[in-house]
Structures are given as structure tokens and as C-alpha cells.
Amino acid sequence: MREAGVEDAAALALVGAATFLESFAGVIDGDAIVGHCARHHQSDAYRALLENGARAWLIEATTGGAPLGYALVSQPDLAAAQVGDLELKRIYSLSRFHGLGMGARLMDAALGAAAGYQRLLLGVYHGNSRALAFYKKQGFTQIGSRQFQVGPRLYDDYILARPVAV
User: Fold this and answer.
1) Which of 88, 4, 102, 82 is CA-nearest to residue 46?
2) Distance between CA 91 and CA 70 in Å, rounded?
């Protein structure tokens, strides 16, 4: 695992699109997934986030260096955010590598970046039971909800927060 820079935007975009597809195929309409990934999981979107102060950490395969997962934090754009909050915008890993501790390592990096902040926030699809269990284990609790649009439909997300240890 290493901190990612703007030169890693293509790798972040690839993992972002792949994991979004893995997570939501069968839940969200396929055309909506493709359109969402084309807009939000493309290199320029990640480059812009990183150039505007976001930080990311990338986990790569030991052999060959293929990207396997990442976490990205930035200033929050959630309605539940307060002064002193940081948002974990994304924490993704390819499902084939779940259960190997990547999520905990990425979360540790995000929490390290949140040092000096009051809380770390995130939004998660309300039906993603695996992610919800992981976040609960990491000390997150629900503080609100929002609707998240993909294509023409709205989906319900929970807004979770956890205090940042000083």
C-alpha cells in the first residue's frame, strides 16, 4: 500500500469502476451503471479530486503491481457534515481480495489522514450489508441518510460517522 498521486488517476478510476460494477450489478440498471462510471470513475475525475486536496491510498498486487483497492478522503459534501469533519469518499477493493485485511489497512490510512479532525464521515448504500458490517466493526454509527442518484433512479444511502481518536 502506498499513497497515490495524480499519476495514479487511471488506476484509481479502473478500480472504482470495477468495484462499482461488482457491487451494484443486479441492483442498479446496467446502462445507469455504465453512465455513472463514465462520469464519476474516469481518470480526469480522480485527477481533479487529487489536485483539489483529496488524498488517496492504493493497494497493488505484490506480483505485477495491478491495482486491487484504494481509499480516498476529501472535504465533505454531505449535508450532515459539520466543521471539523473529513469524508471518506471511497474505500473500494476488488471482491476477490475481500477478507485479506485490505479494508482495515485502507481504513487505517484514512483515519491517519483524519488526525486533527473531529469525525470521519461516509455515505453507504443502505442495502450493502457487507460494507455496513465492516463500518460497524470500524466504529461507525449512522447519523443520517441521503438519496443518491444513479441514472434516473434515486437510491437510499446511510450517512455514517466515527470520532477520530486524538
Assistant:
1) 4
2) 6
Q: How confident is the model at residue 45, as a pLDDT?
A: 97
Residue 4 DSSP label: E
Q: Is the pTM of this model over 0.90?
A: yes
- Report the SS3 class of residue 141: strand
pLDDT confidence of residue 166: 53
Domains annotated for the chain, with CATH where assigned, are 2-163 (3.40.630.30)
Amino acid at 155: Y
Query: Packing angle between helix 9-24 and helix 30-40, nearest 10 degrees?
Result: 160
Nearest one of 63, 13, 62 to 41, comparing CA atoms: 13
Which grid coordinates belong to 82?
A: 459539520
Taking the C-alpha atoms of residue 69 and residue 2, their distance in angstroms, rounded to an integer, is 11
Helix, strand, or coil (residue 36): helix
